[in-house]
Predict the 3D structure of the following.
Amino acid sequence: MISMTGYGYKEFLNEKVRFSLEMKTYNNRYMDLILNLPNPLSPLEGQIRSIISSSIKRGRVEVYLRMKELEEDLTLIVDKAAVKSYADTLRGVQELAGISGDISLGHILSMEGVIKTDKNRDLDSMFEILEPLFQDVLGQIHSSRAVEGAETEKDIMGQIGFMESCVEQVKEHAPRMQEQITSTLKDKFEEIVEGKADESRILAEIAVQVVRFDINEELQRLTTHLEGFRNIAASSDPVGKKLDFLCQEINREVNTIGSKNTLVEIGRIVVEMKDSLEKVREQLRNVE
């Protein structure tokens, strides 16, 4: 089993750029990927999502990627229209103020927007850096999720083992429950008919009622579900959803046994199985 809770962090540094990548994963019913990328890297979002979704199938994933450019490749662009407009405006101000003198380059350059910069970024080269960075952080997350998942699996399988022992206890009590039902019904019938009914008719009616209260089929299905739980849990694939569905089937059989039960001992065991199953379902909320 793999837990849905994990954490990973790594940095990359060369002479041109520094990246820091932090990823956190939490339990969630579905895949919920939250990407926080620097604006210049937005065109790479699709590729980054593909890397993460191919590695993590379920849960909430929060990604924080930070970038600091240490060396910039700039293209300087002169806004010719702005230069001409500033120059004409400054000359007009001189004329209105009656001030003589030449307009210097410094006057023009001090104006906003005269020279514009365009940063040249090689996104392909950046992705070549980011791809192994993401793979390393995902490796950290998988390691932490595997460790926590192993502990979770140990606890869950302990509860499944307890439920299997409960099923065996119920099987031991089941014949006594049938005997009690048969005896009780026979006494009731005799009390009602006062010995005037045919014995075979009474036995036939009792047999019908015993079949209604029989729990052997439920016990058999419950045993099969618990075996199936163990088989699915042993898979290396994401199993959280499958096991949660199987828990619903297990719960249905336990409830049916409880509704048919007439013995105090079986009633106590049913309560213990319900408690154990609830613990399993709680743990499964954090299993991928």
